[in-house]
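Propose amino acids for all 102 sites.
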């Protein structure tokens, strides 16, 4: 489940592809290019992920059902925030509650 995934789980998958199915049976491949730590306290941690997708389709902010060869199926809310010659960049932000003693 997504709530159990940690920054380290994603950091191990840098530069790998997550595939999303779009409406009308189209696909979009997102490459995870950054896993950034945020704040961490005794009760919560934050982190963000940056994905890059080809500029062939610009998807709006949405929850994408992503498929990954190691992580399986994961639903992640992502928003586009910039584009350049390499593609369109999307960010996902996580705010995760920690179990006592984590």
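Proposal:
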């Amino acid at each position: 489940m997504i709530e159990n995934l940690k920054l380290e789980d994603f950091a191990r998958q840098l530069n790998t592809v997550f595939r999303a199915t779009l409406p009308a049976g189209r696909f979009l491949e997102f490459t995870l290019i950054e896993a950034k730590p945020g704040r961490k306290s005794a009760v919560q941690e934050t982190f963000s992920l940056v994905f890059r997708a080809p500029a062939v389709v610009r998807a709006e902010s949405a929850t994408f059902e992503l498929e990954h060869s190691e992580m399986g199926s994961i639903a992640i809310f992502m928003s586009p925030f910039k584009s350049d010659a390499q593609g369109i960049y999307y960010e996902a932000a996580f705010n995760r509650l920690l179990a006592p003693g984590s």
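Strands lie at 17-21, 27-40, 44-53, 62-68, 72-84, 87-97. DSSP finds one helix and six strands in the chain.
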